[in-house]
Structure formats: structure tokens, C-alpha cells
Amino acid sequence: MWFVVLPKKCMKNINFTILKLKPMKNLLTILFAFITLFACTSKSDQLYKQASDKLVAKDFKGAIDKFDSVILLDDKNVDAYFNRGNAKYDIEDFEGCLADYNKAISLSSEATILPIVYLNRGDVYWDLSKWDEALRDYTKALEMKPDYDSAMVGRGKTYLAMGDFVNAKLDLEKAIKLNSNNAVAHSAMGDILYDQKKYEEAIAEFGKAIALWPTIMRYHIDRGDTYYILENFDRAIEDYTKAIELNPDYPNSYVLRADALDDSGKPNEAIEDYNKAITLDSTYASAYYNRAVTRKKLGNKKGACEDFTLASDLGDKNASSHLKDCN
Length: 327
Known about the structure:
globular
């Protein structure tokens, strides 16, 4: 018995009356069905390749458009849903991404689904702060692939977010043992050690993460924060400066560096950094507050009062207590 399975969009073009036809016409109809199937599959494959190329090129919106077209031709294409979800994740459409991962999972069997689908869905839940759901998906990925270090890291980070430092550390230690080159694992381990006030050990872990993945701004900020806690302001400034080089449009890095500059006896340079942060984000209350403190230290009472007022208007509660001195 022959079964010709076509995408629904292609199916509309074929009139299946095979059993009513004479043998020759029956054969021609089957042949026509296969030709139509090939045409639809070929078109779908072409679109899928175009979509994949756009995804690799980081043209995420273009990739989504192409995957839309693939799914119109073949609404059972698991890979198209999964990769469209990946593209949506990169434009922070987390709800749309979640819907696509759910669809990919619903179309798959236990035998065909890959653990990366659960890993990626876990990442979405993590970004949405849905810790229980993230924990479930990372655990599912690990049940399917026990040596999956990325899933181990994801679950460890989830435990950390939930305040379960014991299980977080256990998972991250296992992940590092499985793959010592996993920068995310070292970074997360640094976070745990920082929270435990083991600052030197935290610096070592952040350093490993930076050595493995030097272009991640967050790693430099985290190590800079740790140096700052230890009052090693010069090293903190070095890390914050690197973070600024990696992303000059992130205002928080300027505020952090300004704080370190001020505490290292360079208030005028600190003012410049606070100015830059405010230029990037005119609603940054902490930047106004910290600049006010530095201006007050420099004897600029008028400027300090202006900044305390702005910070207070923007919701900084610490600033309000300074306003009584501005009358």
C-alpha cells in the first residue's frame, strides 16, 4: 500500500481519487503526487536553508520570516519551530520563543526529541524567572543526557537564583569536572563564592571565565565588583574599563568605574564617568546620587543639591535625606 504524506499547503493541490481510477491513470496520479511532494519539499528545504543562513548571520528577524514560510509549507517541521524559537530568543521575544519550543516538543516523541530543546526552553524559563519550570527542564535534559554540562550549569544557576547554594555548588562542580572549559560554569561558581564572601576564590573563578570567554562584559564587571569589595580599586578600574570597551553604551559600567575612581582619590575623573552614564541614561537615579556625593565632596554644594533633587525625583530614597541640607 502506498501512502503519500504531503505538507498541508501542498495537499490542497492534489485530488486523491486513486481507487476510482483505472490502473494507468492511477499510476499517473501517484506520479503526480510524488512530483508535487518533491516540489513542496524542495521549496521547503530551500526556505529552511535560507532561514538557517540568516540565523547564523544573526539576522534574527529575517530568519523568523523565513521559518514562518517553512512552517506554512510544512506545519509539522520540528526543526523549523525549534530554530524559529532560537531566533525569537535572540530578539528577546521570550513568550514567542516558548510557544515555538512547546510546539517542537509536542510534535516530537520521546525517542526523537533532543535534550537541547529542553535545555533551551529551560533557559527561557530562567530568563522569565520561572525557576520551577527551568529546574524541571534542565533536569529533563540531564535525564536524557547525564553528562550534559550546559544543562548542569543551567540547573546550578537556577538553584543559585532560588537561594539553594548547596545544590547550586554541587551542580556547578560537576559541570566543571565534565568540562573545565565551560566559562558559564566558572562565572556561576564565582557568583556563589562571592555570595559566600570568599572573594579571592571568586576572583579566580571569574578569571577563568574571562580567560575562556574574554568578550563577555558581565564577567569583567563581576570580577571588578569583587576587586572593589576588597578595595583593590586599581584592578577594579581595569575590569570596568574593559567592560566599557566591550560595550561603551552600557551606563552601569561608567557608574561602577566612577565609584572606584572616586574611592581611589580621583573625583574629577569620577565626575566625567557619572556624566557619561547620565548622557546614556538621563533617568539613571543612582548616577545622579553618586555624582551628588562626589560633587559635595569637592565643595560644589549647588551641583550636589541639583543632583540630589534629581535623584530623589527619580525615586532614589537615599537622596531625600540630603535635601534638608540644600535649603
